[in-house]
Structure formats: C-alpha cells, structure tokens
C-alpha cells in the first residue's frame, strides 16, 4: 500500500509541475503578444489605437513576405512566420495532454478561438498588427503540437509514457521560458 501512495504523490507532483509550466507558458504568451510592444500602463492608452494595422485577406502578409526583395523584410518575415508557428506548438501539446477529449478538430477549434480572440484584442487595443495570417500560422503551430502529441502516443503506445516525456520536455524548456518571462525584455 505504501508503494501505491508514493506513486500517487509522484503523479500529483507531476500534474502540479505540468500545470505550473502551462501557466508560465500562458503568462509568456500574454507578455509576448500584448506587452512586447507597449507597457502595461500604455495598454489602455486610447491614442495608440488610432494607428491600427488589420489584414483580413488570407495569405496576404505571407505572400508579401515571400515575394519581397528586401533582406530586412525577409529576416523579419521568417521570424514572424516561424514565431507564430512555434509559440502555439506548446498549446496544441498541452491541450492534447490535459483534455479528455483528444480529437484533433476539437483542440484545433479551441486554438483557433484563442488565436482569433488574441488578434481581436490586438486590433481593438492597437497593439501590433491584427492579421488573419497570424491566426492561420498559430493554428498550424497548434496542429504541429497536437500531431506531435499523437506521434509520441503512436511511438510510446502509452499515455503515461507520453505524459512523462512531455514532463521531461517541459522541465528542459522551463528555464528558457522563465528566462524570457522574467529576464528578457521582448521586442517585436
């Protein structure tokens, strides 16, 4: 009986750790998406909302990035496209891990709604650019996370092993996440 108690305690510690890392990730997203361009005090400054950038044409920005001849814009474009994909990979992974409904379409719909909400808030507050292409790229990143979870499940054949693998990856990524959350002043 004592051995079962230890296993239950370890599972609780693992769960608390994973949720803790997930909360740090959400805080990082908030900092990156809302506070990297303006301070918390300037967030509600109504003058800033006069200069909004909104793109509602799918693939317009991505096409502009691909066909530009400027090296500076190409570097920005790569960082923007890769960044929008990469920052949503963990969301897809954690959703697949935490939710009991592991259907790809349900988790992807949730990622779409989160991304849409972010772009609407950015548009309303005049933070950066509200762009349908960001939603597309964010959803693609979330899909990569979901598929990554499914791939781990296919390879490891056991949800407990997948959870352990994601815990290990989270432990490796946590110092980097904390560094960007608390030390680095993000500039986009």
Helix and strand topology:
Blueprint lengths: L1 H34 L17 E3 L4 H8 L3 H16 L2 H10 L5 H22 L3 E3 H25 L2 H24 L6
Parallel strand pairs: 1-2
Helix pairs in contact: 1-7, 3-6, 4-5, 4-6, 5-6, 6-7
Structure overview:
The protein is mainly alpha-helical and 188 residues long. It is 74% helix and 3% strand. The chain has helices spanning 2-35, 60-67, 71-86, 89-98, 104-125, 132-156, 159-182; strands at residues 53-55, 129-131. The longest helix has 34 residues, at 2-35. It is globular, with a radius of gyration of 19 Å.
Q: What can be said about this structure in brief?
A:
The chain is mainly α.
Mean pLDDT: 89
Termini distance?
Answer: 54 Å
What's the total count of β strands? 2
From N to C, what is the helix and strand string?
Answer: HEHHHHEHH
Counting DSSP H or I runs of 4 or more residues, the number of helices is: 7
Strands of the widest sheet, in order across it, are: 1-2
Q: Which residues sit in consecutive blocks of at least 5 with pLDDT less than 50?
A: none
Give the biggest sheet. 2 strands, parallel
**Helix amount, in percent?**
over 70%
Structural class: mainly alpha
Radius of gyration: 19 Å
Tertiary shape: globular
């Amino acid at each position: 009986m004592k051995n079962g108690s230890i296993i239950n305690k370890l599972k609780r510690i693992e769960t608390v750790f994973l949720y803790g890392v997930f909360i740090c990730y959400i805080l990082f997203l908030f900092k990156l998406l809302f506070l990297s361009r303006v301070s918390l005090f300037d967030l509600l400054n109504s003058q800033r909302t006069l200069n909004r950038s909104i793109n509602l044409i799918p693939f317009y920005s991505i096409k502009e990035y691909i066909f530009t001849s400027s090296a500076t814009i190409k570097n920005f474009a790569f960082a923007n496209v890769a960044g929008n994909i990469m920052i949503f990979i963990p969301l897809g992974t954690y959703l697949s891990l935490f939710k009991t409904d592991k259907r790809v379409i349900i988790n992807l719909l949730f990622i779409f709604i989160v991304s849409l909400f972010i772009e609407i808030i950015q548009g309303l507050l005049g933070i950066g650019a509200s762009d349908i292409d960001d939603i597309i790229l964010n959803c693609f990143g979330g899909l990569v996370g979901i598929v990554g979870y499914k791939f781990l499940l296919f390879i490891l054949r056991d949800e407990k092993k997948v959870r352990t693998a994601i815990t290990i990856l989270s432990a490796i990524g946590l110092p980097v996440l904390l560094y960007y959350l608390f030390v680095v002043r993000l500039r986009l």
